[in-house]
Design a protein that fits this description.
By secondary structure, the protein is mainly α. Helix content is about 75%, strand content about 0%. α2 runs antiparallel to α8, α4 packs antiparallel against α10 and α10 packs antiparallel against α11.
Length: about 300
């Protein structure tokens, strides 16, 4: 028998949570635009270090103010640190370099192949079955990737593709790794400490590859973009996500993940003036369909 997801207690509470899903999609979606803007003045390592550090501070303050327990058992601290490396440190810096070398809209599309790679790692590490739905999703994803990046290889291998794919795979592996190691840290505490550990990795990378961080002088637009990344794209967005997970079923919450690339791609067209090609559009539709089929898989199981 399928156990129902605990309800928040009222219809208005569920309605509020659904509104938070939309807000989350815009917070994460516009972070791609803010990153593209800030990269005009701020070096990639410095940008990611500053944004993640500010976001971690916001999340810790918000969690403490809301009364959440952020304690991490000693035996699981290494695993949370590893998650911070893959989910935060590696993912954020690789995506920054991808945006630096390629179109933001294409980076967003490739980044959200992540649910498909989660399915692959789940088969390899968690010994889950590659059922028909996952096989279809993987096929759609591969077709979308080929259509999306195929024309780009006419002028040589585009570096941004490698950065984006590696970032998506890193994000996916970090997610599955936490289940593989049976990490039982409460979700919000897990997110907060992953951000903090990710910040430490990014700070080390900044000092190694860029030296002393330089955040001045930069343009006003870059200052506002950096503030948005830290306050909303990282800090508030993570707090919203785990608040949503506590109010709604994972299925409903996952819809927020599907809305992010839609917002990100649309905003890059309107605000950055990018003009996706027909191949970009077809690739986006196929990859989006693949991610949707994986994320919506629990609904199929319940039926």
């Amino acid at each position: 028998m399928v156990q129902r997801q605990p309800d928040s207690g009222s219809t208005s509470g569920a309605g509020t949570a659904r509104l938070l899903v939309v807000l989350l999609a815009f917070a994460w979606g516009f972070m791609w635009i803010a990153t593209a803007t800030a990269l005009r003045d701020i070096a990639p390592w410095t940008l990611r270090m500053a944004g993640t550090g500010l976001g971690a501070a916001v999340l810790f303050i918000a969690a403490k103010a809301a009364g959440y327990d952020l304690t991490v058992p000693r035996r699981q601290r290494f695993h949370v640190m590893a998650g911070g490396f893959f989910n935060v440190g590696a993912f954020h810096i690789l995506m920054a370099f991808s945006q630096l070398h390629g179109a933001t809209s294409r980076t967003v599309i490739i980044a959200y192949t992540m649910p498909i790679w989660v399915a692959v790692f789940s088969v390899l590490l968690l010994h889950e079955r590659l059922d028909r739905l996952r096989t279809i999703a993987l096929t759609l994803c591969v077709a979308g990737i080929v259509i999306l990046v195929g024309p780009l290889f006419a002028d040589g291998f585009p570096a941004f593709v490698l950065y984006a794919f590696t970032g998506a795979v890193s994000w996916a592996f970090g997610t599955v790794y936490m289940k593989w190691q049976h990490v039982t840290v409460p979700p919000l505490a897990n997110a907060a400490w992953q951000l903090l550990f990710g910040f430490c990795f990014l700070l080390a990378g900044t000092l190694i590859f860029e030296g002393v961080p330089r955040l001045w002088p930069i343009s006003t637009s870059s200052i506002l973009a950096l503030a948005y990344i830290g306050l909303f794209g990282v800090g508030l967005a993570h707090f919203l996500w785990w608040s949503i997970v506590g109010r709604l079923s994972p299925l409903t919450a996952s819809i927020g993940a599907l809305l992010v690339p839609v917002v990100g791609v649309s905003a890059s067209i309107v605000l950055l003036g990018e003009r996706p090609t027909l191949a970009d559009g077809i690739g986006f539709v196929l990859i989006f369909a693949a991610a949707a089929s994986v994320l919506l898989r629990p609904a199929v199981q319940r039926r």
